[in-house]
Amino acid sequence: MKERIISVDIFRGLTIALMILVNTPGTWEYVFPPLRHADWHGYTPTDLVFPFFLFIVGTSIVFAYRNKEPNAATYRKISIRTLKLIGLGLFLGAFTLSFPFVKDFAEIRFPGVLQRIGVVFFFAAVLYLNANWKALLGICVAILVGYWIWLGFVPFDGAAPTFERAPNNWANYIDLQVFGTHMYKDDYDPEGLLSTFPSIASSLLGIFTGLILLSKRPKKEVLLLALGAAMVVLGYLWDLAFPINKALWSSSFVLVTAGWANIVLALIYYLTDVKGIQFGSIFKYTGANAITVYFLSSFITKIFYSVEVADGMSLHGWLYEKIFVHSFLSGEMSSLLYGLAVVSFYLLLAWWMYRRKIFIKV
Predict the structure, then answer these.
(1) What angle do CA 49, 54, 60 make, to 5 degrees?
(2) What is the pTM of this model?
(3) 312 and 177 in one domain?
(4) Does 208 share its domain with 84?
């Protein structure tokens, strides 16, 4: 019987809840600063959410594949799951309510959150099955250092490269050449091609945490806290040469976000798995159907923005204006309350699915 570590499920579900919250404010005009992404360099609490999920993908790989052999059957399952994730992401990027329910080809975004999760899962799972922890550490270091060298030191058409949002930024340039108009912005994509390599390192760091959690060593939470603090410090030191940046998924960003992930997970692990304190079960239910809940939230949000009701207002806008906007509330608070209501709905949906033993494997 597989050992179950409750904190991992809670962490995964909490991350999904936060992903939904930051993606569905009442209006983008009024959002509290911590719930916005950093403009370019630096990070906010919102910028921690996606790397937290990739981190826990790595941790979950350890639990799911620790007794699996690297054979054709295993690779087939990994490949199928990868293709499902990429397919769901492309569907979200292409879907529209207007017949024939597909956007004009030039408007379809190819990269995306689910696409990146699928690619990262594939490489992290394959590497875990074929390498010991020392080799994985070497690969992780090679990715992070190699990415820094490429973006910071490889000449760009004979000129110096840059970490800024500019044409001579290698990550932005490659995305533009490969994806063209199929990007989030005209000049870059936060889930772009080159920045996917360091995002794999985010998942590899999660694998190390999974190995620690499955080990027999005592005081695992102390080790995770220490590793987390060390990575945050190292990330801030690296920030001096390679700025912390989510859009680029810079190497310093990888270390800082994985460090905070270890710290948060260590605290949850200590409270739930060590002390046996019962809390966060609603997030555990969400973690059991994490991808399903995230996909549904993204899909339904697209529909709410597309369906027009009274006076040409979208269903999303109508609900927000009629229920959450009041003179005694600030714009930011009204917008946050709408987001919290959306999150509450999906938490309840996850609870309902869990109680009825509905687990949709993606």
Answers:
(1) 120
(2) 0.94
(3) no
(4) yes
